Amino acid sequence: MPAVIFPGPEGRLEGRFQPAPRPRAPVAMILHPHSQSGGTMNDQIVQRLYKTFVNRGFAVLRFNFRGVGRSQGSFDNGIGELNDAAAALDWVQTIHPEAQVTWVAGVSYGALIGMQLLMRRPEIRGFISVAPPANMYDFSFLAPCPASGIFVQGAADTVVQPAAVEKLVEKLRTQKHITIHHDVIPRANHFFENEQAELMRSIDNYLDFRLDPACPIR
Description:
Elements: E1 3-8, E2 11-18, E3 27-31, H1 44-55, E4 59-63, H2 79-95, E5 102-107, H3 109-120, E6 124-130, E7 148-154, H4 162-172, E8 180-185, H5 196-211
Parallel strand pairs: 3-4, 3-5, 5-6, 6-7, 7-8
Antiparallel strand pairs: 1-2, 2-4
């Protein structure tokens, strides 16, 4: 899990990068929760997502948005953080240019940034959005959503209303050519404090499905 420093739009960005174990290995990038609420790349769920993709043979990057840890700059209300994510993906692609498939996974605010990045980067073929803040931000930019993925939500989340995520999922499911999965974890709050095992089981089951060579979703 090598520590890395790479250039971002406002100076250096700090991350942890697991290089690709083989040629043409897929890439995954993990985005952390809101930095103004203490979110960093060392968030427990971010670290577990990172390890999950490493164990599946991906080249994987998690990093701190601007103003977090050793990353330079200051919080920029999502605009700068999206640019950070784009710069981070550019950097991974310079290290691992032969990758043909990219995934993005985000937690809470990181899920919002991940879905925005999805709209910019056609090489992203799959997404994992954990507790996306659908009642706090306008997700209408997903018109249309260009890739299939999964939303995972806690049933007892008092920060992100489960009904708001359900409404977003229902809207995206009306689109053709993509498949949206949606798992609700019973008793889980916004941080999945006592249900992280259930959260990761849901994500692992979805990745088993998507990464199966026989999977119809591409």
